[in-house]
Amino acid sequence: MSSDDIKGGNLPDRPTGHSGEVEETGTPSFPDPGLPPHQPRRQDIDEDAAARSERAIAFMFTLSMLATIGFIASFVVIDRTTIVHIWPFGHVNALNFALGLTLGVALFTIGAGAVHWARTLMSGHEIPQERHPIAASPELRQQVLADFAEGAKDSVLGRRKLIRNTMFGALALVPLSGVVLLRDLGPLPEDKLRHTLWGKGKQLINQNTGLPIKPSDVTVGSLVFAVPEGLEEEDHDFLEQIAKAALMIVRLNPDDIKDKRERDWGYEGIVAFSKICTHVGCPISLYESQTHHVLCPCHQSTFDLADGARVIFGPAGHPLPQLRISVNEEGNLQALGDFDEPVGPSFWERG
Fold first, then answer.
1. Domain check: are 122 and 235 in the same one?
2. What residue intervals traverse the membrane (predicted)?
3. Does the pLDDT of residue 350 top 70, yes or no?
């Protein structure tokens, strides 16, 4: 063939029937080689080998269950501040290491058991599957269901009860790891929201001077802030405790007190109420001596201290809790117990 033939476009006909070529009919020019002959596995012909595989799989599922139990036990028993030396990692947090190790073993052994099950005991016959359009026909859907049933039969799940039971046990226990992790969202509230440091015999300490409060220290028209005896700013939980125990003390004319219980729980017109607003927990600090109203500076919730500290304006949901007080032998104001109800905002929604 000359260069003139190429320039002129006179090319010879391409041969057909070669490997990789497609004939005019659109069918491959080479025959389908098919699948190689099936080679049976040892477990297919030796029941003892199959039983050993079954025991190995069951061992892995059982190990997963034990690791999950170990995860939960580690979370409960090991202190989160414990540091240990583990070669070759060096000094590590014992809780984190135990949680990672046990959860990793639990998940890995489930996966390893499933893979070993599929490779040794499930059907080993090669099954070709042709490509089909995305939309499945009714016949295809029936075929899928039939294949699923055949796969379930090939899995020998019904006959290999040891595998079935240990697998279900491992799969049932592993989710407990996630449930236990919810415990780490924070400390359980228990009944901490229902109690403060106030108790019978606790003296009322002036928050500004740090001295016990005598009835003569509280004059009509004044507002005094108090904390429980024994609470110091250096305490590690000072902020947590003061957020519940902060107290405001006012002195009213006994004739101005409308609520009988409020009068009985006070001392010569001196009444003590929680300083924590029942809306969102802001500290109340604004007092109108003529109206006996206290105002929260955050959202203007207003409470009437002459009428059981009930809400007369604003978004607060319930009155301020009152602290029952008296005078001790030394002439200082003291508490006769804790608040009669939990302090703070939205307690009933939270607790």
1. no
2. 56-77, 97-118
3. no
The predicted structure's pLDDT at residue 351 = 47
Query: What is the spatial distance between Cα 149 and Cα 127, in angstroms, rounded to a whole number?
Result: 15
Same domain, 266 and 250: yes
| Residue 205: CATH number of its domain | 2.102.10.10
> For position 193, what pLDDT does the model report?
77
Whose structure tokens read 């307690």? 347
Q: What is the mean pLDDT of the chain?
A: 85
Question: How much of the chain exceeds pLDDT 90, in percent?
Answer: 51
Residue 206 CB contacts under 8 Å (≥ 6 apart), including other chains: 212, 213, 217, 224, 225, 226
What pTM value is reported for the model?
0.51
| Judgement on whether residues 312 and 274 belong to the same structural domain of the protein | yes
Residue 105: predicted pLDDT: 96
Please indicate, yes or no, whether residues 168 and 202 belong to a single structural domain of this protein.
Answer: no
Range of the domain at 338: 192-350
Contacts with 294 (C-beta within 8 Å, 6 or more apart), sequence order: 223, 248, 273, 284, 286, 287, 288, 302, 303, 305, 309, 320
